[in-house]
Amino acid sequence: MLTLLKLLKDGRFHSGQALGVALGVSRSAVWKQLQHLEADLGLSIHKVRGRGYQLATPLTLLDSVEIRGRAPSCDWPILVFDSIDSTNAEALRAIARGQAAPFLVLAERQTAGRGRRGRKWVSPFAENIYYSLVLRIEGGMRQLEGLSLVVGLAVMQALRMLGVSGAGLKWPNDVLVGQKKIAGILLELVGDPADVCHVVLGVGINVNMQITDEVDQQWTSMRLESGKVFDRNHLVGELGAMLQEYLCCHQVHGFSAIQAEWEQNHLWQGRAVSLIAGVNQINGEVLGIDSQGALRLKVGGVEKVFSGGELSLRLRDDS
Q1: What CATH number is given to the structural domain containing 91?
Q2: What is this structure's pTM?
């Protein structure tokens, strides 16, 4: 089925006979495969008598060779999957198999993509970026301080480099344009964080997605913001280069060297917010973050600091 998709990805018309010859199957078998492409991958295919079959929108599939050409300094192995449950889940399995870090896992689609706090990450085929970079951490807890915020900053800068100028940050793990989410980060650890461990830097970016009824919050994509289709290989290369730059700075100088830049790009700096922790809600004003990436809030006139993976930040209605 995916061999057929690669024949159609140029967005031009291809006759059923030509496709059958290329695949070594009958025209009726081609027709069945086309139906599977539409049903399983959610693709739209034009069928015109006398002309053949055409993808409604041309596809550029992920290509490890092209990605390396875009970012030659990122020399980590790249594992590309047509379909997988979750790139983070596959990254964790690869660690368990003994795959040497660093390495990168990408997928054209995820069948069980995950966001923070167990939320579903909508992952249509060949439209967005589903990205998991695995690092080996040997420097102890200092190398983990503020790490998800560092990744968010790299994602934001990659988006801006490609023309999404309104991209900004929301503590702790989101990239927004205005009030709408365009990217999210999910970090997972394996091993002893005080000694030697592996960390999976999971990144999801809405790239060319234009419509979905599966997302339960405000969202946008690079295409919706710019009106143009993006080459995802270019974006993966740009993101790799940005991550390499920011991770190197973080490793050498610690998160405090990046703290001010992160605060300058925090869209909710100075805003009235509610911090949700389970069933508890804390109202305050965002003062910024500390040198370890924890959130600083003014609560009842007193500064308080909050950190933890299960915290969620919301703007207050009066903000």
Answers
A1: 3.30.930.10
A2: 0.91
